[in-house]
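User:
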Amino acid sequence: MSAPVTERLVSLRREFHQHPEPAWREFYTTHRLVEEIRRIDVDELAVGPEAYDPADRMAEPDPDDLERWMERARERGVDDDLLETMAGGNTGAVAVLRNGEGPSVGLRVDIDALFIEESTDESHLPEAEGFRSKYDESMHACGHDAHMTWGLAVLEAVKESDFEGTFTVFFQPAEEVSGGGHPMAESEYCADVDYLFAVHVGLDHPTGEVVAGIERPLAMCHVDATFEGTSAHAGKAPNEGDNAMQALGTAIQNTYAIPRHSDGMTRVNIGRAEGGTASNVVADEVSILGEARGETTELMEYMKEKLVDTLHTSAEMHGCDADVEIVSESPRADSDPELVDVVADAARGVEGVETVTPTADFGASEDATFLMERVQEEGGLATYLIVGTDHPTSHHTSTFDVDERSLSIGVEILTNAILSVGETESGESR
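Assistant: Predicted structure:
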């Protein structure tokens, strides 16, 4: 039998780090999570479509790409029955412990990686110590390998404690594309949760600092658009073409000219553009990837509407059509002060914690807000905490890494907080 997770924090995190799988492709990752969850012996384990409605997913990848990642997982020993359960990219899992009457407490951790090639520099610890990504095209460059390790360790700790109530861990796929939070929030497992904790490592907070709850996460949406025109010979008969490249140029310029809103911060960006065939051909198809964000959900909706309108009108100006798709989105949800206090109290006295910061602005976006929003709308409390870690470079870079001292710190804080709300309820649920 394997040693307890709490005795394998570093090795388990490093194993996850070696097998980074992007959104909805987390086949091997889910397989390892399932192995560990079964060893812990929970009361209910739901995988993929057992954990959420696949129709609620957002930002689903191309089926051919999914098949490639599934075959890779098969080659690494994932059994066919589990792969069949995850067919179509339905990855991720929910683990539930039930122990009598008491509050319903949830913990959400994310499991996906990024399309970033990890550094091979000898000064990069994963390279130096032999746990660099085995996949050249992907990397755990945001700390989700640490998050999964926390989720398993806390699940084990609560299982071995005298916690009374229901404890649910959401091992959520596809956070990086804001695709997995919504289906898990809409699932039966998120219903009637009294307290929800979500967690992230680092985010420019050093080892020893804990932020008990974030404020002002930006609501956001991802947008894909394709401009379709008519090709023509650029020298002989350019007048016969409807130039998708011109539509693209107008769209980019006009997107950045969208008026900002007086009610708060708004953001918009076109991050990728590609298309055309040759210098002497009027381009008949160009595609872009963009996003809109807002300080509130309402401000994001304003920017989203303006962005979509801008893309359509830019196409029309040049005789083109625009196919615009909202690929994914997430709302704003702030941490509840009452639960922030619980986390702050839970962090004080934990070995390695030097600074407890009650709240901090998040400044980015997160689809854990879907789960937070549902819990709050149903009368529960939610918080999104940050466990600081020294990371040598920023998140989403090829040399990102975490200070592994943060692993045990995070486990103890989360476990303390979860057990604390159980004691506060004195065995009575909301």
